């Protein structure tokens, strides 16, 4: 079954995996060992299924871009919702993206750059403080927010775990 990818759109792979895999394949072939798939797996994302495109672990305050159950990015520090307005857990999909979104929820204009909305309540991944909690959104530092924005597309699967 096809995943939520545009035809011809390649997902970025973890650099170490792309650099080390050929050498590992040569070494395994030379030794007559098991296929490359039996080699040590790439860094796995925490408790998300292999259908996730992004995996969030609220208890670890980290998120990963993932493909086929394996991390394709380094762990990204995040902050999430306050107890009175928590970030929901579960599986959802990317609904829309807005590069220059401005929220009016708090009665004032609040910039939310690189917003990737994942629920009907206006919660999103976006650039924000990774030291202060949010009102249900997932804050990423600017470089990570750009990377997530550039990678995820509407329909991609979001898994949020505690």
TrEMBL record:
> Where does the L,D-TPase catalytic domain lie?
52-161
UniProt xrefs under InterPro entries: LD-transpeptidase, LD_TPept_cat_dom, Transpep_catalytic_dom
Q: Which Gene3D superfamilies match?
A: L,D-transpeptidase catalytic domain-like (2.40.440.10)
The pathway it acts in is:
Cell wall biogenesis; peptidoglycan biosynthesis
The record places the active site at 126 (proton donor/acceptor), 137 (nucleophile)
Which PROSITE patterns does this UniProt record tie to the protein?
Answer: LD_TPASE (PS52029)
What are the boundaries of the region Disordered?
71-113
- Signal peptide (from-to): 1-39
KW Cell wall biogenesis/degradation (keyword) present:
yes
Asked if the record carries the keyword tRNA-binding, the reply is no
Keyword terms of this UniProt record: Cell shape, Cell wall biogenesis/degradation, Peptidoglycan synthesis, Signal, Transferase
Task: Output this protein's name.
Answer: L,D-TPase catalytic domain-containing protein
User: What is the source species?
Assistant: Actinomycetospora chlora
